[in-house]
Amino acid sequence: MKIGLTQNDYPIRRNILNKVSGCEYVFLRKNNNLFHSLSTVKKILFRKKSNIEGKYFFYQKPKIDILHLYNDINYSSQKWVTSFETLVPRFIETKNDHQKTEPQHIHNTKTEKALKQISRKNCLGIISISQASANIQLELLKNYPEFQEIIKNKLSVIHPSQEVIPRDSGEVYKNIEVFNFIFVGTQFHLKGGVEMVEVLKKLRQKYNFKLTIVSSFKTDHYVTKVTEKEAQETKEMLKKEEWIDILENIPNEKVLELIKQSHVGLLPTWSDTYGFSVLEMQAAGVPVITTDIRALPEINNENCGWLIHLPQNRLKQALYYSNEQKEELKRTLKEQLEKILEDIFTNPQQLLEKSRNSLKRIKENHDPVIFSEKLNTIYSKA
């Protein structure tokens, strides 16, 4: 069976590429997408780029059996599947609905047409990578009752697969003299890096530890709204701290080696659709401190790690839109993180048990073989 892919970026490699044995994966030409071509023409003629996010339509039908998209909708007659991390269609008209204090959607024709495409027989299924995202999808469908049941029946939740990363955790957690913490996240500010460092600086007076930060300090424009200049200033300030190691743009193999040398992972994030670094840490038997937004409580808990409970709406989205909400989020994050870290330092014996439970959770919930079987069941509908 030939599976057509439109991109070769991290989400595709992480969730789709080479996940089903016996399938041949074919990368399709970008200029075969009508919406991409229209955007290119508009950019040349009017020096203005169109928003083509979420759309795909073939000029020429490629020689594939199934098109597997990520966050996108297919408008051609080709049989297709899409995986998504928040919802589909991912339009300006839909992608921010769940972030409001009280989630709400404004009915529109563009979204209606997209949902009609999903309802058609050539759409074999839509795959949410978490239950939290599935709930956001179901919330959208309430506004389009004519498509609600048929799309609900096509919706499945398949958490990403994760290979076990070998490590002797018994040896790692024996007689800890210096605690090694690790933070992995491209967007340092968005992932709670600033609050994390503030808490750790305070605890440096009492405990002995090191922090490894793997980040490019990329900015975000929708949550923290930190400028590139501010992000670089933060990075330069952190480089002056002797207890912090900063690494940028290193291969994943190097990241995994650093994880294996760590005692505890940190992801005190403000916003995240999933948390793939959490899976990699758990797969090496490294328990993680995370917030409890979106998919994170589905992959982390008090049995295998620690949760920071943030103010959030009913779709598990952290509340950070007003200045008051941001200040409350920061205060809550720092207070709870400090309590968790104090507990880790004074009760280090808990680390080995959480390490074992982390690894057990990965084996039970992210088995690559089971993931492949679930995906193949959807492909077989073709």
Helix residue percentage: 25-40%
- The fraction of residues in strands falls at 15-25%
Q: Given the structure, what is the number of helices? A: 14
Unreliable residue runs: none
Instruction: State the end-to-end CA separation.
Output: 10 Å
Mean pLDDT: 94
Largest sheet: 6 strands, parallel
Number of strands: 14
Question: How large, in whole angstroms, is the Cα Rg?
Answer: 22 Å
Instruction: Give helix and strand order, one letter per element, not per position.
Output: EHEHEEEEHEHHEHEHEHEHEHEHEHHH
Class based on secondary structure composition and strand pairing: alpha/beta
Query: Main sheet: which strands, in order across?
Result: 2-1-4-6-7-8
Give a verbal description of the structure.
Helix content is 40%, strand content 15%. The chain is an alpha/beta fold and 382 residues long. α3 links the parallel β6 and β7 (123-128). α7 crosses α12 (323-346) and α10 packs across α13 (350-365). The chain is globular, with a radius of gyration of 22 Å. 37% of the residues are buried. The model has no long low-confidence stretch (mean pLDDT 94).
